[in-house]
Each structure stands twice: as C-alpha cells, then as structure tokens.
Amino acid sequence: MDQPVAALTARPLPASLPEARAAIDEVDAALAALLEYRAGLTEQVQLLKPVGGTAGRDPDREAEIVAGMARRAPRLGAERLRRIMTAVIEESLDLAERGAATTR
C-alpha cells in the first residue's frame, strides 16, 4: 500500500490553483479507497476478537496507531491525528456493528 501513497507524495507541490485542486481530488480518491478498505479490516478484526465493538476497544492499540501516524505526518501532530483517528475508528466500528446486525 505504501507505493501508491509514495507516488502521490513524491510529487512537487502544484504551482496553480487548478493543479492544486486536481491533486487534492486525487488524494481524496485515494483516501476514500483506503478508508473503505480500513473499514473492511475493522469489520474483520471485530469478527476475530473475543469482545467486539466499544467494549473491545483497545486504548493502547489506538495510541500506537496515532503515534505511528504522527511519525509519518509530523506536521499534523499527535493531537490532531488522535482526533482524526478517533473519528475513523468510531465510524468504522459503527459500520462493522451495523454490518454484524444485518447478518444476524
């Protein structure tokens, strides 16, 4: 998965507004695909864990995720990434729980 991301981030910053907007659109498309895939992974984790959903949340694991992301995106900082990843995790868990409820 790092190859497509590296290809996007290795490019120089665009020089014009239309180019910058096109680059944002490309990054947003990649983010959407990655978030969709991550949501599927979250659902799989919920199936594999003995206790799922909110009860199965692991604050140490979530802190690990944020720390790793902060190393990769230092300009965003740990606190901002914590807020972003909390939203991603909560929404992914919600989706997984809704999926589990519809398959019961």
- Please report the distance between the alpha carbons of the first and last residues: 33 Å
Low-confidence stretches: none
Q: What would you call the shape?
A: elongated
Main sheet? none
Oligomer: single chain
Number of strands: 0
Total domains: 1
**What is the averaged pLDDT score?**
90
What is the structural class?
mainly alpha
Rg over alpha carbons: 16 Å
Strand content: under 5%
Residues in helix, %: over 70%
Order of helices and strands: HHHH
Number of helices: 4
Q: What does this 3D model show about the protein?
A:
Keywords: Isomerase. GO terms for molecular function: chorismate mutase activity. This protein is an all-alpha fold. The protein has one domain (16-102). Helices cover 76% and strands 0% of the residues. Helix 2 (17-48) crosses helix 4 and helix 3 crosses helix 4. The chain starts with a helix and ends with a helix. The model has no long low-confidence stretch (mean pLDDT 90).
What secondary-structure arrangement, pairings included, does this model have?
Blueprint: H1 2-9, H2 17-48, H3 59-72, H4 78-102
Descriptive key words:
single chain; elongated; mainly alpha; 104 residues; 4 helices
Concise summary:
The protein is mainly α and 104 residues long. The protein has four helices and no strands.
